[in-house]
What we know:
Chain A is mostly helical. Chain A is built from 15 helices and four strands.
Amino acid sequence: MGLRTGTFHENYAEEMATFNSRLRWGLVAALIVVLFLCPFFLSDRMLTILTTMGIAVVSVHGLNILTGYCGQISMGHSGFMAVGGYTSAILCAELGWPFWAALPCGALAAGIAGLLFGLPSLKIKGFYLIMATIAAQFIIIWIIIQLRSITGGTDGLLVPKPTICGISLTSKANYYYLVMFFVVLATITAHNIVRTRAGRAFIAIRDNEVAAEVMGVSLWSYKLQAFFIGCIYAGAAGSLLVHYVRFASIEQFPFMDSVWYLGMLIVGGMGSTAGAIFGVIALKLLDELVTVSGPILAAAVAPQAAASLALISHGLIIIIFLIFEPRGLYHRWEMIRAYFRLWPYSHEASE
Amino acid sequence: MTFFLQLIVTGVAQGMVYALIAIGFVIILKCSEVFNIAQGHFVLIGGYLGWTFLVLLGLPIWAALLAAIATAVIMGLLIERLMLRPMVGKPVLAVIMMTIALSTVLGGVATLLWGAEYKAYHGLLPTIIMKVGTISIPSESLIGLIVSVICVAILMFLFRYTKIGLAMRATAEDLQVVQSVGIKATTVYAVSWVIASVVGVIGGILLGGVSGANMDLANIGLKAFAVVLLGGVNSVGGAILAGIILGMLENVAAGYLDPILPGGGLAQVFPFFVMIIVLVFRPHGLFGLAHIERV
């Protein structure tokens, strides 16, 4: 990808900068301002959609670091979200902790769970690691059911209303602000973690484990770091989700969600921060489309058509992306940008 | 003692079910290095196909079996041609995501066609009831055992004495060499998917005939992966033995520990505990080949 005409990199700092022109700075700042102005002109329903999207973005950023950058495929992400969600729910409901203290503790607990279940990754990879993380998902949910006395088991757990500095976060708009704050925070940290020494080590491990180890990258340390960081994001997202619904139950963290998070990553484009966001938006929009068109289809074809539509459409969209656009929406977006940047000399756009 | 023996026998029955699913999985893996997460969904489709042909269309058993196998062959060919052929040579994650997407599509198709309902067709398949002393041997155990043994015998013969079997083993060994001596790898892949889908559908009909067809058939598929890992991913015989071992362990553990544990449901997660233990201590399983990585 070339640079925009008139933009030059004259030193290393400019080369590494996130934004290489004032225009991009301005666009991103404008986007954030628009995000925070949304509650003033959007309906409650739209805010709900955006809030759930935001929570998914936080979670998928974690999965992107773990899977997209470090190459350690996790199919138990929803389980790690459950650890974070339940930890902060228990701290708030049973011990009366304030929300702002419970959320980081939930994230930390999920990180520790990630370390634990990341241990097999030191010995296995690929399909075997997927199996180990699927096992993690089911074992975590089972343990939550077993600890009935503190988690409420299958009945779930009521969570008190979250407040920060005396401001109640019960209204949709207030919670939306909170989630968007975390989305911005997660995006900035995710984007910067992969530019550090650890991030470069992650990429080296993803591209070739043996070569990375020979070059002095400690697999033991960096794989576990990737699991820890990825699961911290999951824990924060799980905590946000539980406090949003003000109820913690195992039905909020189903196995299929873990699959869809990976699907979001594939649709958006693995190994790019923007890709994670694109993927979440695309699949969540598809969800909404299914929700809206479901009743119409159920009336027109058969009552079970609505339920099957969700499964088939999600499956098909992932199949289509895997075959025709394996690098995801982010890659397509870059191609479109390059096309306009080079227009009318588009033949220059050969990478 | 009777309690223990009954647990063991029930466990073997459960284990045969796992083994049937695991065999189809191992075949695809052996030939094309694809980890087929959707194997449990072949069983699901098979269960519902059995109901469609036996109850809805009222065919005799032999005709229903032939019709189901024909459907399975078409399904296997379509899946291989449309979904897996474009994925040849792609990274592991992409291929696995493809089979996961396939499993959701198959689940969606089953929901659309059969409404995710419980469909029973007891008494339409021949049942065998055996009693040894006070312990009754459930007929799914016997039927599962017989069918698994027949499947394995046919597959062993196929792998050892036929040309296509040799081609399949060679493809598993080295794709490039196989292509250079003029074997069409795509044919081998297609055959392996057809076999897996037929095995899955037959298993589904048997299970459906014994305990009815419902969406849970697909969930058993997920647990069958513990069997595959325990037996070693590339061993057909190992899959059967591991299925029996795991089924017994699961039932004994659940039978004795569930009354102690508050939430119960140990049988549901037991295979996953086994999975983790196997993966940490013996990743290639009991009978699998250890994988050595070279740069």
